[in-house]
């Protein structure tokens, strides 16, 4: 009754990062461009070297992880359970250099895929925090 009387409208729900980058297709593109840069940028070779080849399955798992992490469907959790990223990465020696190389590839992918500068900066900050959390060796 009050809504009609005073023309009160519910605010629009803000879009998730997943929706802002184009949903499933944008997330898929981001995941794959990230690995494209890792495979093709000679600077990223030390990072590429710790990844199992071929990388088809890891590309798919990263897409599934990003889907939920960006606010879309929790594809990774539905298949594999909670990501437990740090625990999953403990068998690999991850240094600050590898974090920086990871960010080099991710920043290039974000630059290509995410048009919104504010969202891109927010994602860069979040990815940096996440990548830093993975460091387990000097």
TrEMBL record:
Tagged with keyword Transmembrane: no
Pfam families, per database record: Bac_globin
Keyword flag GTP-binding: no
Keywords attached to this entry: Heme, Iron, Metal-binding, Transport
InterPro entries linked to this entry: GlbO/GLB3-like, Globin-like_sf, Globin/Proto, Hemoglobin_trunc
Family as reported in the entry's similarity comment: Belongs to the truncated hemoglobin family. Group II subfamily.
Record-given protein name: Group II truncated hemoglobin
Gene source species: Catenovulum sediminis
Lineage: Bacteria, Pseudomonadati, Pseudomonadota, Gammaproteobacteria, Alteromonadales
